[in-house]
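Task card 7
Instruction: Convert sequence to structure tokens.
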Amino acid sequence: MNTATETAEQLYAALAKVDIEGLKTLLTDDFVGEISAGMPHGVAGLHHGPDDMVHRMWDVLGKVCDIHVDPTEYLSVAPDRVVVLGRYWGPARNGDTEVDAPFAHVITTRGDQISRLAQITDTARWGFTPAPC
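Output:
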């Protein structure tokens, strides 16, 4: 069985490859994603289940931004929980703005899957006036 850190590393590898099926496989059926208030394009709030997180959060942002999720530090806080610090960066696909924002993800695992991800980010640094990205 993977550690919480190893499972989190798989998440970022799947995001980097835009591996939709890999992402869905990593998330439990009862997965909950909590996305920071103020995020653009209606992605803020709770997302329930793999399909909701993949299609109504990651896919929505991926269509308007060439976003990179760059984890820089993994802090194991419990056997089933890791806090990941990092940075979102990349241009809007329309070329008008770009994202450069720090993040913290609190990831809870169950077995080799992720059951919860809470995102904390500086939404003001997503470069939206108006929100193209």
